[in-house]
Amino acid sequence: MASKSFLTRSSLLLLCIAIFLIASIHAQVHVHEDGTVHDHSHDESSHNQTETDTSLSVDGTEAAHDHSHEEAGHSHSHGISCDMEPIEEYNMPMRIGSVFIILVTSAVGIFAPIILYRVSPYKEGSVRDWALTAGKFFGTGVIIATAFIHMLPEALEHFDSECIGEGWHSYHAFGGLFCMIAAFLLQIIELAAISNLDAIAQRNADAAAASAAAGVVATGYSGNIIKNGNAEEYADSKVNEKSLVNPSSNISHVENNHHEHNHTGINEDGHVHSAGFLEHEQSIRNIGTFILELGIVMHSIIIGITLGCTDSSSFQTLLIALVFHQFFEGIALGTRINDLQCKTWKKPILMGLLFICMTPIGVGIGIGIRSSINPPAAILAQAILDSLSAGILLYNAYVSLMSIEINHNVGFRKSSLGRKVFCFLCMYTGAALMSVLGAWA
């Protein structure tokens, strides 16, 4: 229930952010008395010097002026265009076709690991286990590179654009600031969600203790009597050892054995406490997965809007790059959805559909608003959302994916050297490929 409640709150937060994005794009339109959009251009009357004075350097040669003044309006061009492409040059069929291309590619990326994981039982060390492990660590590298190579640099570039207000240029670290704020807020949200889960687990434990005799749990492990706290620690350590690299790799095995205490050494009397504790730990893992999807979904909407508004000259290159981008991100998210250990297909399918629909929805929004969009406001909104998304993904990458799954995972630390090397190579490969894609998208 707590995980579903958190997912609902996350969806509402995403909806509010989308509403804010669209509202800000329309609200920040600044129009002159003559009806032209204000893009911080310079009027003819605002220049007291002549064109000859401004175009010559001290030594008499023509100065290379960064702002490339035009005869009327003197609009600036600094890599990011402040003007939209004319309607007659906008290739609408190509944009509509891109929606279906990205839809199919994203679906293949995210559902391939989900289907491979759930289609039939498999053993640890099998080819499928190695393939899923590769996808999982490959996805970790993809997520890290997405934040560092794709989101944060783009946010910094947009904050430095001459198209937005001069007030945003008074401080040159807005990209890092919003990224840091997102990470801090995410830590608070996750702590609040975990505290809520702790309270629920404590209430369940109190109810179970009230019905148990003398508050102790008899175990079948070496004939010892283990109190509740020690039994929980023992069960948790055994789960970490069983999980090895992929904590969820044994789901088929667990589902075929309805009593998990057979794997932890706790007998029927202790089943209530150990199972409740393991369920609590799994709920905490689920929160991290939901937060990860929130960050990826926000980013997917942003790149969809960008694709819908981009010029035709760079559209094909950007589309090809985004096809690979969404495919790799789909693999990353799909392998993490497997960690939810759902007994049915419902939740994985819903989370997969949420991911594959976001970029096409973003493209649709970009197509719909490009005729009435205010480019400076759109650039500012994209800069802020890119920074926030980078903070979300960086927090997840280092806290949930690398720290918990590698450094603090007993199973990973006890695995063979060859398996460790394989996992790290997969992670570095994912980061490298996404870094290469950064040259185009």
Question: Could you give a short description of this structure?
Answer:
With 441 residues, the chain is an all-alpha fold. It is built from 14 helices and 2 strands. It has a two-stranded antiparallel sheet with strand order 1-2.
Structure description:
There is one protein chain. With 441 residues, the protein is mainly alpha-helical. It is 68% helix and 1% strand. The chain contains 14 helices and two strands, in the order H-H-H-H-H-E-E-H-H-H-H-H-H-H-H-H. It has helices at residues 2-27, 51-55, 92-118, 127-159, 174-211, 228-243, 251-255, 261-264, 271-309, 312-337, 346-369, 375-407, 410-414, 417-437; strands at residues 217-218, 225-226. Strands 1-2 form a two-stranded antiparallel ribbon. Strand 1 and strand 2 form a beta hairpin. Helix 4 (127-159) packs across helix 10 (312-337). It starts with a helix and ends with a helix. Mean pLDDT is 72; it is low at 21-78, 221-236 and 238-273. GO terms for molecular function: zinc ion transmembrane transporter activity.
Helical fraction: 55-70%
Mean pLDDT: 72
Cα end-to-end separation: 39 Å
Gyration radius over CA = 27 Å
Shape: globular
Q: Sketch the topology as an H/E string, one letter per element.
A: HHHHHEEHHHHHHHHH
InterPro entries: ZIP
GO molecular function, one term: zinc ion transmembrane transporter activity
Main location: membrane
Signal peptide: 1-27
